[in-house]
């Protein structure tokens, strides 16, 4: 007969205090691992570069960041103009095909009407003390929003990466954007 019986503790078994300490360690590690997953993530794709279509992704991004979301905005095709320092200051508002414009399409198609409607919108923005595109970008960057510039579009449009706002991530491809969207709680196409 051996000295180890089912009722007797084995010599190498941990004590109750050691087990309690190990349980505490595991609970702490679990709490840390699960708290990192509590953050919400939003992914936006910006495809339009008109004045009226520059505001939605910027407003949504900055608002989500203010609520604690991790936000990524992937800009592709004409949406890339929003991130271009010079082009973003000259975005136009198209009056043709916009059912909410105060002029009929026949009048909106006249030469110079886009310039007129753009000036009207810029006046409304100034009169209402609405943030400019540049201000929204800077605020968003300060809040941790990641603005990504589509590399294929940069190449296609022959843009110089140095012409984008400081803080814009260049060289991003569609695969990276898809991976980001797959891990997001909210995905938007603007």
UniProtKB/TrEMBL annotation:
Source organism superkingdom:
Archaea
Q: Which residues form a coiled coil?
A: none
**Known InterPro entries for this protein?**
DsrE2-like (IPR032836), DsrEFH-like (IPR027396)
Pfam families (UniProt xref): DrsE_2
Q: What is this protein called?
A: Peroxiredoxin family protein
């Amino acid at each position: 007969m051996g000295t180890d019986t089912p009722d007797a503790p084995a010599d190498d078994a941990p004590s109750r205090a050691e087990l309690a300490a190990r349980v505490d360690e595991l609970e702490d590690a679990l709490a840390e691992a699960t708290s990192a997953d509590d953050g919400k993530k939003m992914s936006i794709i910006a495809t339009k570069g008109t004045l009226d279509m520059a505001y939605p992704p910027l407003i949504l991004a900055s608002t989500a960041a203010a609520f604690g979301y991790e936000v990524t905005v992937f800009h592709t095709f004409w949406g890339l103009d929003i991130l271009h320092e010079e082009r973003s200051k000259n975005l136009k508002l198209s009056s043709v095909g916009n059912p909410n414009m105060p002029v009929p399409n026949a009048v909106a198609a006249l030469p110079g009407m886009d310039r007129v409607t753009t000036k009207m919108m810029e006046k409304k923005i100034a009169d209402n003390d609405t943030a400019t595109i540049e201000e929204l970008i800077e605020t968003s960057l300060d809040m941790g929003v990641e603005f990504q510039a589509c590399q294929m579009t940069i190449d296609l449009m022959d843009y110089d990466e140095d012409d984008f706002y400081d803080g814009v991530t260049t060289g991003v491809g569609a695969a990276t954007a898809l991976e980001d969207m797959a891990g997001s709680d909210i995905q938007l196409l603007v």
